[in-house]
Amino acid sequence: MLGLSEKIIFSALLFKGYNIRYLSIPTVLFISIALFFIRCGQSPSPRLSPIRELGTFKLADNGLEIELVAAEPLVQDPVAMAFDEAGRLWVVEMKGFMADIDGTGENERVGRVSVLFDDDRDGKMDRSIVFLDSLVLPRAIAIVKGGILIAENIPLWFAKDTDGDFKADTKTLIDPEYGGLGLPEHSPNGLWRGMDNWYYNAKSKWRYRKKGDGWIKEETEIRGQWGISHDNAGRLFYNYNWSQLHADLVPPNILQRNKNHTPTSGIDHGVTLERRIFPIRSTPAVNRGYVPGTLDKQGRLLEFTSACGPLVYRGNLLPNSYLGNAFVCEPTSNLIKQNKIIEEGFMLRAEGVYEDREFLASTDERFRPVSLASGPDGALYVVDMYKGIIQHGPYMTPYLRKISLERKLDSPIHMGRIWRIKPKMDKIDTPPDLTKAGSPALVKLLGHPNGWTRDMAQRLLVEKGDLSIVTELEHLLVNGTPLGQLHALWTLEGLYFANPTIYATALKAKDPKVAQAALRLAVDLLPEHPEIRKDLELFIKNGYGNADPVLQLQMILASGDVSPEIAFMYSQKFLENYGGFPLARDVVMSSLEHRESAMLAYLLAQKEWNVYDQHKEIFLEMLATAITNTKSLVEIIHLLQIVAPDGGKGQTWIKMAIANGIVNSNSAGEGEVIFLENKPAIFKGTSSSEPEMASLLNRLSQLFTWPGKPEAPKPETNTAEATDPKVMASGRLMYINLCAGCHGTKGDGMPRFAPPLKNSEWVTGADYKLGMILLHGLEGPIIVNGKEYGIPDILPSMPSFSTLQDRDIAAICTYIRNSWGNAASNVSNRTIGGIRIRTQGKITPWNAAELDTLIFKKEL
User: Fold this and answer.
1) What is the pTM of this model?
2) What are the angstrom distances between the C-alpha of 220 and each of 270, 284, 524?
């Protein structure tokens, strides 16, 4: 196919009257040489003007359109954006990122924050002012009273404008270690203001909050990689470059309250296993594009490799069907995916809206959507870095370097665009300037249909600190919409309003998410208002039976602050209804700090808890682990008495659950030895007829010592590699919560669910095959230890665990390869990470035949 320049030459020849078929040899030679130089001088991936780039976009919904909001030189190398209360657009410009193929000058102070102004209110930015410059790789921004929070390469700053000229006059250090190592792909970012008035970050274990004249820094769970958002209930959403969408199912930090228990669910929940993407152009410039299966026959990337910038749409401009949908950027493949979020009780899952295309895709290789934002007009905004090289230098393979240079993606630089997606219409209503809104007007906006407006009104009210609006907020709690009620509650929390009466009013709300938030806030008041404990107990007793699962979950989370009788009764009910969910078990465990032994005694006194059920077995094991973690000798000795073959009351399955729990404790994982005054009865020569129990007793004895106990024999020097007790403990915990529901707590498999793992060649064979199965799933039939398993003996397929971290998959693999009589080498995090990279493009489960014939080289 001829390019534009070639067509011009031939058109000119034809215009002069030449017949192309009869050109002389010298003329043909001249034309050939000219075309050769034209082709050599033409970039395979040329820089397009904003107007030409606009023509490369394809939206899946014909009712929507995309418009340009800003472009270079107004904005250069944008990576994040935020609107202020007047509708001005603040943009973070990472100008130092990959200025050439070698990343030269990356630490130079060329980054900046610019403010863009739409002077004629036509929706397009007319001018910009540099608010703050001389920054090293800035990456995140939050608008706050008087200025901004800005995340630089390492430090976090508060930059303030004191005279209203939109130029920073002061810069105060908030956290000198915010950015960690400083690598753009693997350093904290986000600065997302949650509904609970904290600022959360991706790739970080810290959150921040303004209080008085200072800032609070508090530890929280680590989340995601690049970008963070929340839905209308305040649940946080984020992702990883290899896993497109994760979410919190419970409020931050709440599962961490019981220091004796390590939760494995609830936070960082992968809401979808979908990795398939549908670019509309070839994408050769991707890391490891040479690996078979990474690209399809058209050279298009098959799955996410750079998922980032997730946003839950909460606006009111797009059609109602978009509300609550999650959008995810994929800059490597020049597209944005749309996911529908589905609520199932207290669980969340997501599925792609389109089966064979994406919400937005482009044929322009330089279209790099890196983050998204919701605007004051309700539209969806796209931050387009518009850059050839998007991969950071330290992670660039020789292949990608070669391809990038061949395609001339290293230049030009310092471009960038901001786009707006909206319905096809003539005009968007101009949003009001909230800088002029008084407190009563802002209270009314807490129920506005646009999520951006609600968030902004809440932020402004909290920053004003005006307690005169409490009456209006209370009125909104009674008469407002559920969204208005939620924001009213969190506005009160942000004002540190501590009168429990107002939260008691909100407990009566019809919407379960409003009542959930009210209960969460009421519990926080207990230290200063212990008198409300009885009211909370009555609320749980009278409301639990008819409550929505979301509210029931919050009632159990709150049960640690009510009487043990009520806490244990309703925790038992919760486990009976939802005990098959790992989250349900973690929720109950999180409420039991210092009550674990009492809860164990309570459950063992119930007849139904002496009838075998695998979910009960798992929970009893978790209880025993937590009790052992207390390091209370009295409570640990009581556990040993239960396990004793001739001295305990419980059935064998209960004894084994307790024994496994002790072995899985922190003491076991850290190699600690627990000193006892006397040799327990369980170790006084009584043997068990069950090999599994005998093995458990042997492992138990290694955790304890007592006067006169013989020293354990030293291991031989030529034994197989040692298995880290910490890894085994972590692997067991992950296994019983995530895998035992199908494979059984003892690895025996379960009829109608899954084959055994004990004595399975798939477990003890090549470690890479086991890693591949956990990463991508497996379809039956499958032969294990000489027996074929297929439908209906087992489920049609085992799901993928690709949303788990490498370390968690490695721990599970190591645990099952060294349990129930299995003995095989450990599996490292590096091995799983390598498999994840090498199997890019595998978007369906494996089958046994594929894995049997697979030749896999570990070298990358």
Assistant:
1) 0.90
2) 18, 39, 17
